[in-house]
Write a structure and sequence with these properties.
This protein is of the alpha/beta class. The chain has a single domain, classed as Rossmann fold, CATH 3.40.50.150. 34% of the residues lie in helices and 21% in strands. Strands 3-2-1-4-5-7-6 form a seven-stranded mixed beta sheet, with helices on one face.
């Protein structure tokens, strides 16, 4: 190996070793289909709009947004197995033109094109993502949070769902930037 290339490789490896691993911001807990549909309805998702699901898990919100609402849907998922599973589901359903899953950290993405953001994160995680959304989102972007609010934001609408069909209640918060 050329000496300069060896030095460059060593420098790159050193920088990579110092990069913190992306932080997992929520456990994987799938949202029931009824709640997925309600989130997208409460968010007013329309055909052709750009929707992002932060921490997209198995991709169910992204798939429904593309398939039933006609949205241009993107999920962001850190977990490799869930990313593979959801990407394969999108391929199997033939939704590749309307839906995709980014394998990455939700804190390192560009959401400036979003019309709707869907989140089901823990309160502390909402607090971590809030400054990014404050900085990037255009006026009028809607955010639907499942079960947990964003501190320092006031929801324009709160929807309680008493039973999701599985015996659990849910609360949705709609914010408009």
């Amino acid at each position: 190996m050329f000496p300069r290339m060896a030095l460059l490789l060593a420098a790159v490896l050193s920088v990579l070793a110092q990069q913190p691993e992306a932080e997992k911001l929520a456990p994987y807990y799938p949202t029931p289909e009824l709640i997925v549909k309600k989130m997208l309805e409460v968010g007013g998702l329309k055909a052709g709009e750009k929707m992002f699901d932060l921490g997209s898990g198995d991709g169910r919100i992204v798939v429904m947004a593309a398939q039933k609402f006609g949205a241009d849907a993107t999920g962001v998922e850190l977990d490799t197995d869930l990313w593979k599973q959801s990407t394969e589901k999108i391929r199997r359903l033939g939704l590749e033109k309307q839906a995709r899953i980014v394998h990455g950290d939700i804190l390192q993405q560009d959401y400036s094109s979003a019309d709707l953001i869907a989140v089901y994160l823990l309160p502390i995680s909402n607090d971590k993502v809030r400054p990014i959304l404050d900085k990037q989102l255009k006026k009028g972007t809607r955010i639907v949070a499942h079960d947990f609010e964003f501190s320092d934001w006031t929801p324009v609408k709160t929807v309680d769902i008493d039973d999701d069909g599985e015996g659990r209640s849910h609360r949705l918060f709609l914010y408009v930037r």
